[in-house]
Amino acid sequence: MGSWMERLAEREALAPPWYLRTASRAVKWLDGHPGLKSFLPFVPIILLWAAIARSGIFPRVFFPGPWDVVASFANLIYKGILPDYLGDSIVRLVVGAGAGAVTGIPLGLLVGLSPMGYRFFWPLIVFFQAVGDIAWLPILLIWFGFGLTTMTFVIVYTVLFPVVLNTVLGVRSIPLEFIRAAQSLGAGRVRILHEVIVPGALPNIITGLRNGLGWGWRALIASEMIVGTSGVGFMMFDARRAGQVTEVLLGMILLGLLWYVVDGWILVPLEQATIERWGVVARTD
Questions:
Q1: Helices 81-113 and 232-242: crossing angle, nearest 10°?
Q2: Which CATH superfamily is domain 80-276 in?
Q3: How does DSSP assign 33-72, residue by residue?
Q4: Helices 81-113 & 198-227 angle (0-180, nearest 10)
Q5: 18-27 burial by CB neighbour count: b if 16+ within 10 A, else e?
Q6: Domain ranges of the chain
Q7: What is the pTM for the complete model shown?
Q8: CA angle (62 as vertex; 75, 214 as ends), nearest 5
Q9: How many separate helices (H) and strands (E) can be counted in the chain?
């Protein structure tokens, strides 16, 4: 047997390199923090952004780096501007999206369940869905002026149609055999609606809510840019007039982060609490 130094040298020769050990430990740590792991794909983008900004290819005033945006974020937080604008945008989204969902789901169930309702409402839904939300802004400004009513109408209008369309699709895609089976077991209309129709349509309803909230968020930002006096969209448009590229980039980043939070913390748990709980869709973790 060799000396202890020789045995140590043999173990070090067989051990993986230090960078592989470090990477392995980092992967294990990230597995315990799934929230941070989901942001890994953004790291190369941020590094590339910082490298281009530092290279000086573009003037810093037109292409600021990540730290400039962070400094702008801290400055707006310190002044109290960003919390107020974010709060205004979130309240508008919650009110408008809530009204659109509360209206759209019952309307979609009605249209999907009733042949007469389908024949009457479907052409109207298709027609008004084709009229974009922003197309309403000129006449809404004449009717209601620059204010909360105009922006709320735009959000409700934008959220409503994806919810209605997907709810109708979900109801009409339920096999007729399911309904007849429930009827043969003595289920009444209310029980069939609660135990067959709604669970069967839930995947489409959740899809409609996701699409509606996404389009409603975009419509809110657009309406804030055009008619708003506060909010993230107004902040970005006002920064454009002042030539503050950092605030425009900050607004774009906030929009993406906020939607990521809404999708991950609200819509995904809602999906787990409804679709997967009712046994319509199995989890695929």
A1: 130
A2: MetI-like (1.10.3720.10)
A3: -HHHHTTTTHHHHHHHHHHHHHHTSS-TTTS--HHHHHHH
A4: 140
A5: eeeeeeeeee
A6: 4-55, 80-276
A7: 0.74
A8: 70
A9: 15, 0
CB 179 within 8 A of CB 138: no
- The dihedral region occupied by 279, where left means phi > 0, alpha psi between -120 and 50, and beta the remainder, is left
- Kindly list the averaged pLDDT for each block of 10 residues, start to end, along the chain of length 285: 53 51 54 59 84 85 87 88 87 88 90 86 85 80 82 88 90 80 76 78 85 85 82 85 85 84 74 59 51
Residue from 225, 220, 203, 205 nearest 259 by CA: 220
Those residues with Cβ within 8 angstroms of residue 107's Cβ, 6 or more apart along the chain or in another chain: 121, 160, 164, 167
pLDDT of residue 164: 92
Residue reference for tokens 């709320």: 152
Would you state the pLDDT for residue 1?
47
